[in-house]
Predict the structure of mannose-1-phosphate guanylyltransferase.
Amino acid sequence: MPARIQPVILCGGSGTRLWPTSRTSLPKQFVPLLGPHSTFQQTLLRLQGPLFARPIVVANRDHRCLVEKQAAAIDAGVTLLLEPERRDSGPAILAACTLVAREDPEAVVLVLPSDHIVTEPRAFRRAVASALPAARAGRLVTFGIEADHASTEYGWIRPGTRVEARCHAVHTFAEKPDAARAATYLSDRWLWNSGNFLMRADTLCAEYAAFDPDTAAAAALAVEAAADEGGALALDAEGFAGTHKTSLDFAVMEKTSRAAVARMRCGWSDVGNWNALWAISERDDLGNVSRGAAELFDTEGCFVSSDGMVTSLVGVRDLVVVAEKDAILVADRSRCGDVRKMVEILRSKGRPQAEWHASSHRPWGSYRVLEASDGFQVKRITVAPGGRLSLQKHRHRAEHWVVVRGCARVTVDDTVADYRESEHIFIPLGAIHRLENPGNDDVELIEVQLGSYLGEDDIVRLEDAYHRA
Amino acid sequence: MPARIQPVILCGGSGTRLWPTSRTSLPKQFVPLLGPHSTFQQTLLRLQGPLFARPIVVANRDHRCLVEKQAAAIDAGVTLLLEPERRDSGPAILAACTLVAREDPEAVVLVLPSDHIVTEPRAFRRAVASALPAARAGRLVTFGIEADHASTEYGWIRPGTRVEARCHAVHTFAEKPDAARAATYLSDRWLWNSGNFLMRADTLCAEYAAFDPDTAAAAALAVEAAADEGGALALDAEGFAGTHKTSLDFAVMEKTSRAAVARMRCGWSDVGNWNALWAISERDDLGNVSRGAAELFDTEGCFVSSDGMVTSLVGVRDLVVVAEKDAILVADRSRCGDVRKMVEILRSKGRPQAEWHASSHRPWGSYRVLEASDGFQVKRITVAPGGRLSLQKHRHRAEHWVVVRGCARVTVDDTVADYRESEHIFIPLGAIHRLENPGNDDVELIEVQLGSYLGEDDIVRLEDAYHRA
């Protein structure tokens, strides 16, 4: 039996064009955009079967708990490779291949973005399997999607001469074209560049080193000096900082003579913006997609999603309306690519909603800010069964907790006690404290913080079950 | 010096076309739609000067504290006449005139809706003064606005022959016409019916009695049996229930031979829907009106208002976007009249947002629901200086209070004590308790309620400073 394919899943993107649902604090790939699973989970599920080894997930440290929780929720085992910072796909893929090549240089690696949707995973796996001979023979195979419209949002590939079975050499890579060129590409049967790659680890490392030796050396250093962090492998920050920030297409694929393209028809979408999500979602007779507490009157062709607020549309056409607790987007469906510009505007104005959600996920559970005001803040805190916040103290705030669900174990200085529903705990300023959920059901608390400074960074961690101390 | 004009301000409307800002719990007339004052307050301010007596305000009991607070905030004294239920403008005006006629049958009454905007109050007062001779002579004078466009939203009046100075007999009343007829009315210089009236109290009572003797008798009974309620006069419910629910136009004006119309040009708008508010608001170069945390990118002709959430518009035209904490409206600006239909849909689906705001105003201050869940609820409570909640208990819930601003005086059973910022009070289920603000600044608390039933009606009032016990 030949060696399995080693999947490498890229989780580093921030997906600003799906704002306000996707933000730095919970980017697109961790959001259930279509169906019950996030696109990251869908990517893991796509890799089921004997063809694939345990996936390597390359992710930012900030998203570690999301990766672990979401993988665990679907019983998928992963190997975590933590990036110290975002440096685009090139260095991430190179580091992963360097790691894989240390064990088995000829191992074949399948690189997958974590934020795509594939409605026909079997067809996806078939296409991967059929490209294996070319990858084994030293080709850098990219998967090309058979285009069904003249997209100006994707990169295109013109296939060249046939090489190994089902693969063609790449004649031309063309970045996002204008409408006229896109129409030509479509009629000439060019393919969309899907961003999925299949190749031997050693081939990729060698080609990368040929075109960018500095980055190859830096990536090798980052992997060599990588440290175990409670089961995850953290790339060395200094080494990784020496890589050039760039995409694999730009660093290698557009330069190498080994580039090949394999056709794929698998219900693929990169869900690049809200309009793309509308296009692949089930629509009603009037072309509307409606999620959450939405009400529509004489409305057509709209995508509306509401996180609780009653969102009412009256007499409108072809809009995207996304309502989160702290941020709302109303965009023309044909202008969804510009949502990225709106996020830049919000960032330039210092609006926290550009990057942060009102809800935050933590290894131990999650919290949501219910009210923020001068001198006080109210949060709803959920601690998962077995969850254990760090032993900590605050320099600038006192906290009141009221248990509203379940039974919480609370340490305050030298005392440990259990508190049930409707019990109150006061954490004085400076007190060393810890919150735990020793039970089998979620614990929920309402927290009222009071103090001169209420930032998340006013936490002095004395001990932490999740390696954050 | 002649007797002053007796203003009667009608506060009974519910303004559903300005949903979600205007709802039954805080209708349009109490909202600061344009500038710092509500239209109710603007109506009071319009009546300053020696021409007018202390206004009578006809309002629903539920809105009493709003009327009193908003009048007090601009130092305006009012006489409150409480309607037991909404029966449209006819019975409300008739009851007020019956009341006025008991003191002085010949008193001249000026009826004003409380939800209109008049940008030139002096011109308004001049027009009223100039119609006085006609009213004194027994005319029922309605004020006609010189039309500037072919509105299909207003009633129109065709003036007839001249009667007293500056007044014309009414030749025709025409209800909301179609566009073609509206265009004809405009070119024939018909007037818009503003819903403001000037007439002697006895004339109105006599004419009403002539056309609808049952209602006249019922209204007389409602006034005769009216009861003093801590300074307000509450119409007798049984009597008032005997009146026919109808508008004054329909009950009297369209039938009487005494109808007259006086021209008025005073920057009038009935702010009948969001588009009307957009039209009278200051707009930027691209025709946008923007209030609160709104961000616009390549957007034209829009009205956007946000109650805190960052509301972002991308590439849209001629929309109304109104975001309240619990409800959002996105409507085409030309379709704002249909917002009323959306409210009906929400009502038919039992959505509380059709009628109720997340924030509620009370005589002692206000509160806002921050979170509502099974078994618990979180509120932010503000008690105004001198404010005093009723002495009360709950049958189904316990409450935790954390003071986050100011100093609260709290009674729990036999104890009264003052609590400062960051102090916690527990109100056990069934405990008799009271919250007061003895200081000069607002007191704010976060309340966590826990119990099997959390409805507002689980309050057993033992004593109340605002006549609600």
Remarks:
- Residues 89-103 of chain A form the longest helix (15 residues).
- Chain A has twelve helices and 30 strands.
- Chain A has a mean pLDDT of 95.
